[in-house]
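User: Could you go from structure to sequence for me? I need the amino acid at each position, not a summary. Structure tokens:
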């Protein structure tokens, strides 16, 4: 089955409608850069520990999407690493307090109205209502040496271990005690893996953008480059949000969708090709050890993103329900030529964004409202897309992360 030209253009318009504006990205970047400058000021209480703050999650990957409503805030995830500290002689609580005191001082110095809130693993810095976002700052210390030892002992991939960190968690049983048993994380390693999965498409588009605005490639921030993989993930995340609007706790978490989609992406140049390839193949990258599903963190193969599924089997069921529905909806969309039927194929899950995306395409062909010169099409011809099976597919072992 070949997706129609109308379907291709519509998927591109959907991705465009979901994209966060460059202004929002710039605001987020300025905010964490400002906090980083504060932490490195001469009288900072953490200056001697070589603090570094950087963004993580969907903002770093370029897969953040606009909230469902105008009332919702953007959630900007960041990490504050004290690079000359470690877990020896320091409890998680002490690190959390050390970083938290500086964040509270920053909030006072900036005359920010809303108080700093403590989250399970982070401090939450809330900006003015007009900014429409808040920043979650996770305190962390490096964990490269210990991570390498753990991976070597098990014969696992060491590629991303240099950027490994450990983070605070108030639910940890040793939160208040000095211990090596901290929760591991590696957002920089994951981002590098994700960038490799985007492949040469990312580099080509980055170079083209640099040439278009007469800038050097190094001056183009990653978030300004949009690849088919990122666009497909954004569309799938919004489809997920709509499907689980009333079952938030069951919804497939973004890191699972992102990880499986990145594995399944095969360098497609068009959003339609990428989306259908991902939907066809993403569950093939779920391992099964005979008792449980395993979705490995590519930057830390000891971590299983599906580790909550055994305790919450409804989440595992919800993932496969969502995947089956996404296959059904986007398979239906691929066949459509009529604008209204195309919108109706995804509107139950995508919501108002389905209509807004159609509006981006301009009046339909033959309309009296059509301007003399039609707007340029967003996409081009795509290769064949499969008809998705209605039956549930059993997880299979992946052939590797490359």
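Assistant: Here is the amino acid at each position, in order:
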């Amino acid at each position: 089955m070949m997706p129609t030209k109308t379907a291709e253009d519509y998927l591109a318009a959907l991705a465009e409608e979901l994209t966060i504006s460059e202004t929002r990205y710039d605001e987020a970047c300025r905010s964490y850069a400002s906090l980083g400058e504060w932490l490195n000021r001469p009288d900072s209480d953490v200056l001697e520990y070589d603090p570094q703050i950087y963004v993580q999650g969907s903002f770093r990957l370029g897969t953040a999407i606009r909230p469902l409503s105008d009332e919702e805030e953007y959630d900007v995830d960041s990490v504050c690493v004290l690079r000359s500290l470690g877990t020896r002689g320091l409890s998680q609580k002490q690190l959390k307090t050390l970083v938290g005191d500086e964040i509270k001082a920053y909030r006072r110095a900036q005359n920010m109205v809303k108080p700093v809130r403590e989250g399970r693993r982070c401090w939450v810095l809330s900006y003015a209502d007009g900014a429409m976002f808040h920043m979650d700052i996770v305190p962390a210390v490096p964990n490269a040496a210990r991570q390498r030892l753990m991976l070597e002992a098990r014969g696992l991939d060491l590629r991303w271990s240099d950027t490994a960190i450990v983070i605070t968690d108030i639910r940890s049983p040793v939160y208040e005690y000095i211990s090596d048993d901290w929760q591991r994380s590696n957002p920089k390693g994951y981002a590098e893996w994700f960038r490799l999965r985007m492949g040469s498409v990312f580099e080509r588009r980055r170079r083209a953008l640099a040439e278009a605005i007469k800038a050097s490639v190094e001056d183009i921030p990653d978030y300004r480059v949009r690849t088919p993989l990122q666009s497909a993930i954004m569309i799938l995340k919004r489809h997920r949000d709509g499907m689980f609007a009333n079952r938030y706790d069951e919804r497939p978490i973004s890191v699972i969708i992102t990880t499986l989609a990145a594995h399944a992406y095969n360098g497609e140049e068009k959003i339609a090709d990428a989306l259908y390839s991902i939907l066809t193949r993403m569950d093939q990258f779920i391992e099964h050890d005979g008792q449980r599903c395993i979705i490995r963190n590519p930057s830390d193969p000891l971590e299983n993103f599906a580790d909550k599924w055994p305790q919450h089997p409804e989440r595992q069921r919800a993932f496969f329900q969502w995947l089956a529905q996404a296959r059904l909806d986007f398979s239906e969309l691929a066949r459509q030529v009529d604008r209204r039927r195309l919108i109706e194929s995804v509107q139950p899950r995508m919501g108002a964004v389905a209509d807004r995306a159609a509006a981006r395409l301009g009046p339909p062909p033959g309309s009296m409202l059509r301007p003399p010169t039609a707007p340029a099409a967003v996409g081009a011809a795509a290769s064949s897309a499969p008809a998705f099976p209605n039956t549930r597919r059993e997880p299979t072992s992946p052939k590797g992360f490359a």
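One structural detail worth keeping in mind: The chain is about 45% helix and 10% strand.
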